[in-house]
Each structure stands twice: as C-alpha cells, then as structure tokens.
Amino acid sequence: MSQQKIIKKALFAAFPYTIPIFAGFVFLGVVYGIYMNTAGFNALYPMVMAAIIFAGSMEFVATNLLLVAFDPLRALVLTLLVNARHLFYGISMLDKYNGTGWKKWFLIFGMCDESFSINCSVIIPPGVDKGWFMFFITLLNYLYWVCGATIGGLLGPLVQFNTDGLDFVMTALFVVIFLDQWLKKEKHYSSLIGLGVTALCLIVFGPENFIIPAMLGILFCLSMLRKFLEKEEPTDDHDLA
C-alpha cells in the first residue's frame, strides 16, 4: 500500500472519533475568541494563543494574566498546576508513542484530555497505521480548537449584544466539569478536599492570592491520601476524558 493510501486510510478512520469533540471545541473556542475581544484583544491574540498554548482552561486564565501586572513566576507556577495532569498523561503514553517517528513531537505537543482519552483507549481498526491514526486524532482536535478561537476572535467586533458577564464563562466551565465529576463518583472525598482546602486558602490569603496556595494545598493533600483515595474511589479510563 502506498504512503498516500496509508495516510488517507488513517485520516478516514480517525475522523469519526473526533466528531463529538468538534462540536465542543468549536463552541468553546468561539466563546474564548469573543471573550478575548471583550477583554480588549484583537483577533490575532486568540488565534496565536490557541495555536501555541493549546490548553483551553489555561488560555482563559492567560487572558486575565495579560491584564494584570507582569509576574512571570506566578504565571509559570499557575500554568504548571493547572496542567499538571498532563505529566501523568505523558508518562502513560510513552509506549504508545514509541515508533511514531517525527509525528511523536506533535503528538506530545497536541495531547489534550480528549486526544489522550481516544488514543489511550480506542482499538485502532485493523490495517490502519497506529502512528498516523493517533496523529490525525491529535491534529483534528487541535484544528477544531484553533479554528473555533479564530472564528470567535473575528466575530468579536461584530457582536452587538451585551457581553457583560462573559468573563464568567471560565468559572462556569470549571463548575460544569466539577459537577460532572461529582455525579460520576459514588464517593466525593477528592472533591470535598478540593472545596475545603480552597475555602481555607480563600480565608487565609484573600481573594487575590488564594489560587496558587489552594492548588498547592490540594496537590499535597491528594498526594498524601493517594493510596486511600485509590482504594475508596476506583476510576476507569473513561473518567479521564
């Protein structure tokens, strides 16, 4: 089989798995682009940030970081904490990505929750090249997000409705994720730890400085109680999506 046919077959095999992600990524990307515009940035910002950062939740956070005093250390720590889960994703995918050649570099860069979930758990159809299949899963999801953010950035100046409160979209996104995880679990130890530590840090450090201490505290508590939580709250691969 020629290389062109191998690539085409992998693309056609990968595309159906990304259709549900297409709807979510494009919608959230458009909202992100409009949000950036309401914060005073032109369409170039969401397009470039989506293409380079490619971390949805962190991109929303980065919008606020661009509006406050320059603090690279705080930005670095916050970015590492928000995306710390990717360290574990990467370790678990070492064997999967082995032997994919130059595609491995893009697979590493473009690995998001959704791409990880598919590439980690899906059974690749017979006769489809593994490397190209994972590459197109990652590439398509990447393009969905970048296109959505670009469209939102371009549409931002044309939006005529009142956009007051649009910045609440990031808070709403995390609330939805939290509620989704809450409903999936029978026991809520991890969630209660997160709520408790966050509330404590909010009281101690105040609303302007509580985020990083809270995330460090949550990480510490979850690490210390890891064995207990794994025993009490067994998870499956689908919960990682």
From TrEMBL:
One of its GO terms (biological process) is L-valine transmembrane transport. InterPro entries: Brnchd-chn_aa_trnsp_permease. It is a multi-pass membrane protein. It comes from Aminipila butyrica. Keywords: Cell membrane, Membrane, Transmembrane, Transmembrane helix, Transport. Its main location: membrane. This is Branched-chain amino acid transporter AzlC. It comes from the Bacteria. Belongs to the AzlC family. The chain crosses the membrane at residues 12-35, 47-68, 132-159, 165-182, 189-205. The lineage of its organism: Bacteria, Bacillati, Bacillota, Clostridia, Peptostreptococcales. It is found in: Cell membrane. GO terms for cellular component: plasma membrane. The keyword Membrane applies. The keyword Membrane applies.
